[in-house]
């Protein structure tokens, strides 16, 4: 596909996606590469983190040539699974850091860095019937920062979720979800006062 904007210029990038059926339609190997330009607006950033200050630096995130490989399939009519691993070198990946302008550190601003990212996603789905579904998901985000003194601020490396869907007489649908977020780094600040 083709992308163009004033900051990132004009690019033509390939997008390849191959499926290999290892065993009928039950186990499928997926390989490929893609690229993505994410437009970071104040609205999209606050949907992800509502504690931002009103004016933050904005820049688009460019993820060229993400390479991925995955395996998905099903075992019978009730059980399905999927796992995918990917690698990409990011440009202007946004992270959140404590804003020091107010002094109380209860608001955040943005900071952009160029890390590489290894991401692994897994999902298991079990269906008892059309009325009951159970879904477990796991994601690992391993950032390697371009500056060793930096961290992927306020970004958990591990994300787990367990949810389901239950239909009561096809009139009431309940979709509960439990989410776990792993360890996050937060930049430390030290304040000094002048003695009188």
Largest sheet: 9 strands, antiparallel
The secondary-structure class comes to: mainly beta
Total beta strands: 13
Radius of gyration: 21 Å
N to C succession of SSEs: EEEEHEEEEEEEEE
Distance, first to last CA: 64 Å
Q: Overall mean pLDDT score?
A: 86
> How much of the residues is beta strand, in percent?
over 45%
Provide a count of the helices.
1
In terms of per-residue confidence, which ranges show pLDDT below 50 for 5 or more consecutive residues? Answer: none
The percent range for helix content is under 10%
The shape is globular
Explain what you see.
The protein has 196 residues and is mainly β. It is 4% helix and 56% strand. It is built from 1 helix and 13 strands, in the order ββββαβββββββββ. It has one helix at 42-48; strands spanning 2-5, 9-12, 16-23, 27-38, 61-75, 79-89, 93-98, 108-113, 116-127, 132-144, 158-168, 172-174, 177-181. The strands form 3 sheets. Strands 3, 4, 5, 6, 9, 10, 11, 12 and 13 form a 9-stranded antiparallel β-sheet that branches. It has a two-stranded antiparallel ribbon with strand order 1-2. It has a two-stranded antiparallel ribbon with strand order 7-8. The chain is globular and about 55 Å long.
Give me some keywords for this one.
nine-stranded antiparallel beta sheet, 196 residues, single chain, 4% helix
Present the secondary structure layout.
Elements: E1 2-5, E2 9-12, E3 16-23, E4 27-38, H1 42-48, E5 61-75, E6 79-89, E7 93-98, E8 108-113, E9 116-127, E10 132-144, E11 158-168, E12 172-174, E13 177-181
Antiparallel strand pairs: 1-2, 3-4, 4-5, 5-6, 6-9, 7-8, 9-10, 10-11, 11-12, 11-13
């Amino acid at each position: 596909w083709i992308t163009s904007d004033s900051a990132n210029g004009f690019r033509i990038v390939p997008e390849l996606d191959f499926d290999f059926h290892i065993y009928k339609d039950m186990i499928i190997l997926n390989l490929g590469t893609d690229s993505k330009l994410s437009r970071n607006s104040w609205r999209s950033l606050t949907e992800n983190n509502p504690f931002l200050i009103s004016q933050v630096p904005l820049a688009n995130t460019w993820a060229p040539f993400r390479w991925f490989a995955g395996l998905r399939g099903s075992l019978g009519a009730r059980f399905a699974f999927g796992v995918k691993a990917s690698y990409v070198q990011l440009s202007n990946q946004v992270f959140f850091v404590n804003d020091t302008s107010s002094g109380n550190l209860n608001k955040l601003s943005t900071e952009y860095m160029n890390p590489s990212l290894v991401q692994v996603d897994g999902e298991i789905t079990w269906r008892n019937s059309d009325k009951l579904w159970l879904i477990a998901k796991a994601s690992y985000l391993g950032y390697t920062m371009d500056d060793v003194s930096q961290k992927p601020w306020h970004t958990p490396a591990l994300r787990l979720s367990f949810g389901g869907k239950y239909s009561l007489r096809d009139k009431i649908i309940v979709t509960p979800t439990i989410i776990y977020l792993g360890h996050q780094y937060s930049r430390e600040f030290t304040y000094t006062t002048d003695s009188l």
